[in-house]
């Protein structure tokens, strides 16, 4: 059974960089039919797509965040990572990592999510 | 970006009664390959989203058949034929046809 697990600091100061990692177990990340992505959810609010990465390193970012986001992949560790710089309180959210098919942005496996709070 | 509008915002339902959630997109969700990439997710309290349907009406494994997805173009519907207690949560539609993927604002299903 495929499992995704987010990890990283739960508290980040304003203007600094949020960094999260998603460890994938139960299957290889180096598989041609899937992208690996990040979705976030501010407390009590809806879902926002951040971006996705293919095992080759090809990325697609939400234009609303593109100037601040970097998603990377480490196939040797079977994990991928999110970096979001110059954070503000508006970036406070539960961050989910997820898998979706190349042909369709419809995540079928999700991590449990990790809350990141931006505060001094 | 494509705006997804769900209604109602809140849906109180009596156990055993049907429920229906509407989702409308600001643009057609028919892709150039002929598929319509409209998906439905369920998020139970304190849990991650769970995909229920992809491409409008393709049901995910383990999803009870009391759930159904339908629609075309810009208008879509998720129906629950007989609501059970485990169906409580927030339901989101999501389009994957146009980049970036976008979600509806959610419909909270609760038991009366």
Using brief descriptors, characterize the structure shown.
heterodimer; A: 120 residues; mainly beta; four-stranded antiparallel beta sheet; 11 strands; B: mainly beta; 0% helix
What does this structure look like?
Chain A has 120 residues and is mainly beta. Chain A is built from no helices and 11 strands. In chain A, strands 2, 4, 5, 6, 9, 10 and 11 form a 7-stranded mixed sheet that branches. Chain A has a 4-stranded antiparallel sheet with strand order 1-3-8-7, with no helix packed on it. The N and C termini of chain A lie far apart (39 Å). The model of chain A has no long low-confidence stretch (mean pLDDT 96). With 112 residues, chain B is mainly beta. In chain B, 0% of the residues lie in helices and 48% in strands. Chain B has no helices and 11 strands. Chain B has strands at 4-7, 10-13, 19-25, 38-43, 50-54, 58-59, 67-72, 75-80, 89-95, 102-103, 107-111. In chain B, the strands form 2 sheets. In chain B, strands 2, 4, 5, 6, 9, 10 and 11 form a 7-stranded mixed sheet that branches. A 4-stranded antiparallel sheet of chain B has the order 1-3-8-7, with no helix packed on it. The radius of gyration of chain B is 13 Å and the shape is globular. The mean pLDDT of chain B is 97. Chain A binds chain B through residues 39, 46-49, 60-64, 96, 100, 104-108, 110-113, and chain B through 1, 35, 37, 39, 41, 48-51, 54-55, 60, 92, 94, 96, 99-106.
């Amino acid at each position: 059974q495929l499992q995704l697990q987010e990890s990283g600091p739960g508290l980040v100061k304003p203007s600094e960089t949020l960094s999260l990692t998603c460890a994938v177990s139960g299957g290889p990340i180096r598989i041609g039919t899937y992208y690996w992505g990040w979705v976030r959810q501010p407390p009590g609010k809806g879902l926002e797509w951040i971006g996705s990465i293919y095992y080759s390193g090809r990325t697609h970012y939400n234009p609303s965040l593109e100037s601040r986001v970097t998603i990377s992949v480490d196939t040797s560790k079977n994990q991928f990572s999110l970096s979001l710089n110059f954070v503000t309180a508006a970036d406070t959210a539960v961050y989910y990592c997820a898998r979706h098919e190349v042909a369709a942005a419809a995540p079928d496996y999700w991590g449990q999510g990790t809350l990141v709070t931006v505060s001094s | 970006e494509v705006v997804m509008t769900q209604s109602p915002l809140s849906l109180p339902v009596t156990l055993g009664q049907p429920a229906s959630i509407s989702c409308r997109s600001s643009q057609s969700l028919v892709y150039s390959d002929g598929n319509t990439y409209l998906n439905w997710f369920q998020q139970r309290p304190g849990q991650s989203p769970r995909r229920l349907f992809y491409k409008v009406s393709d049901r995910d494994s383990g999803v009870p058949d009391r759930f159904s997805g339908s629609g075309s173009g810009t208008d879509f519907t998720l129906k629950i034929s007989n609501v059970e207690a485990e169906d409580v949560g927030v339901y989101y539609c999501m389009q994957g046809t146009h980049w970036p993927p976008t979600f509806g604002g959610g419909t909270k299903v609760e038991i009366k």
